[in-house]
Write a structure and sequence with these properties.
four-stranded antiparallel sheet; alpha+beta; five-stranded antiparallel sheet; 13 helices
Length: 543
């Protein structure tokens, strides 16, 4: 194999690689020997077919396979010989005039990772803001939880439905006067103002009372999961069967017992654990962002443009999805375009910090163990249908990039924890509001690598920060002592192979009537399972 460097500019490299016809032919001979014992041909005993006949029968396929293997080996040898660390998958092009029996000339183009000086981790100083889980915070969490577990009681017969009330209806939907599959149902409970139905459905129930019959006119969203209903105007003939109003939830021992707990004290105990966990998560987020700020301020180096573009595209796609749901999508998109350069700068920062954290981790022996990796794979597999889980596990085990993407969040957290141990940390008690405001004031702390799969909605550029949101109480949190903290992702070096599409995740049951659709994952290889037939509910929010 002959190699000639044809480009060396910044982080860009390009090589012309020549693989001799003799090498390719030798590989064909190896392929012939490999398959000979299994070849069957009339007149010959099994395994005794002459090599020249095997070449005649399977020559084209064997040559193609041998060429592919020679190219793969040639690229690997090039990486080793030139000591290259590719940022992403090298682009390999075979010369157009190649013919079987001739030397193969390749062009290998890639971007390499920058040479990063040994990152300094000395002198790191961080402030740990802590928030006590006092009785006031615990009761506020219980009240928040109680409000989510809303109960309804029967309303007076003469009452008209208002926002916040629950209406029990029968319905029959049609498009252009024709009933559609899943558009009919009975005894569906609708909470007016909950936002669970497509726009206009709930609003038209305001003012109705028991016994009323009404035709609701709505339009299916453009992103609706049923193809023949997307964007279509529809009518739902409804009958109001019951009307219920919210009932006050009294927080006492009976309320705790309705959750399967012994007493209100036990509920407070569990809720205190959840509040402490939330506060610890906020504290960690603040410390991590300050840590990344210090690293960014003390390290500056070129980053591979392809990695930056991949990161930027993920950010931009998420933002475009968000503005598509604004009241005036076109105006929102035009406003967003003005900030393109700012978001590109954020992508550069994330990739640089990701590479820096990776270097720190490698320099100090931070690793994700095989046991931890197997646990990650098993947890991720639970997101898929039972019949697809083994396929997903095999896919991750065979694809280096998919495994790296799965490993990245835990690896980054381990590097951050290592740096926390090395930093000089001072403690200061504060309030939750002050801590959230401090986090909001520094909203670019999350580090992503290309393809990390995380949402970017909390990474708005500094000029347009979204208010910090308090985590909502969840019923499962009452029944569990603790909950794993969600980890961040580490920008990583992409291995030599591209990721293939993973098995499709199972869609949550979606009604065929007026449900909103959550955006589909780009990597899904199969269609979601058929939707269940139920009316007018919105699809579950994207995780």
């Amino acid at each position: 194999m002959k190699t000639v460097e044809t480009l060396n500019e910044g982080l860009k490299r390009e090589y012309r690689v020549t693989i001799t016809a003799k090498d390719i032919d030798a590989r064909v001979d190896d392929e012939v020997k490999s398959i000979a014992p299994t070849v069957r041909m009339p007149g010959f005993r099994p395994g005794k077919v002459p090599p020249n006949l095997i070449r005649k029968m399977h020559g084209a396929a064997l040559s193609a396979d041998a060429l592919n293997k020679a190219i793969d080996q040639g690229v690997r040898d090039l990486m080793a010989k030139e000591k290259l660390r590719p940022a992403l998958q090298p682009a390999v092009t075979l010369a157009d005039d190649y013919e079987a029996g001739k030397d193969a000339e390749l062009t290998v183009a890639l971007e390499v990772l920058p040479e990063i000086e040994a990152p300094s981790i000395e002198g790191l100083k961080l402030e740990r803001l802590t928030v006590p889980a006092d009785d006031k915070a615990v009761m506020a969490k219980i009240e928040e939880f109680a409000a989510q577990m809303k109960r309804f009681e029967e309303a007076p017969k003469s009452k008209k439905a208002a926002t916040g009330d629950q209406v029990i209806i029968d319905f029959a939907g049609s498009v252009d006067g024709v009933a559609f599959d899943g558009g009919t149902g009975e005894d569906m409970a609708v909470e007016i103002g909950s936002g669970q139905l497509i726009p206009g459905f709930e609003d038209q129930l305001v003012g109705t009372k028991v016994g009323d019959e009404k035709v609701l006119k709505v339009t299916f969203p453009d992103e609706y999961p049923v193809e023949n209903l997307k964007g279509k105007p529809a009518e739902f003939a409804i009958t109001v069967k019951e009307l219920k109003v919210p009932a006050a939830s009294k927080i006492d021992d009976d309320f705790a017992k309705s959750l399967g707990l012994e007493s209100l004290d036990k509920l407070k105990e569990l809720m205190k654990d959840q509040v402490e966990q939330e506060h610890n998560g906020l504290t960690r987020t603040y410390m991590k962002r300050k840590l990344l700020d210090q690293l960014a301020a003390s390290h500056d180096f070129d980053v591979p443009p392809t990695m930056v573009e991949a990161e930027f595209n993920q950010i931009w796609q998420q933002l475009e999805h968000e503005v598509s749901h604004e009241e005036d999508p076109e105006a929102a998109k035009a406003e967003l375009e003005k900030d393109r350069d700012d978001y590109h700068a954020i992508a550069v920062r994330r990739v640089r910090l990701g590479l820096l954290l990776s270097e720190i981790g490698q320099a100090h022996g931070v690793q994700v163990s095989n046991q931890e990796m197997q646990r990650l794979i098993a947890q991720a597999a639970q997101q898929y249908r039972p019949e697809d889980r083994q396929r997903f596990i095999e896919y991750v085990q065979q694809d280096a990039l998919a495994a790296a993407q799965l490993r990245a969040p835990l690896y980054e957290d381990k590097v951050v924890d290592f740096l926390f141990e090395k930093a000089e940390i001072s403690d200061r008690e504060t309030t939750r509001e002050e801590l959230e405001a401090a986090i909001e004031a520094d909203d670019d702390g999350h580090v992503h690598g290309p393809g990390c799969g995380h949402d970017h909605d909390h990474d708005a550029k500094p000029a347009k920060k979204a208010a910090a949101k308090k985590p909502a109480a969840k019923k499962d949190a009452v029944k569990e002592e603790a909950k794993e903290e969600k980890v961040e992702a580490e920008p990583k070096k992409a291995p030599a192979k591209k990721a293939e599409a993973a098995p499709a995740k199972k869609a949550e049951d979606k009604p065929a009537a007026a449900k909103k659709a959550a955006p589909a994952k780009a990597a899904a290889a199969e269609k979601a399972e058929p939707a269940k037939k139920a009316p007018a509910k919105k699809a579950a929010a994207k995780k």
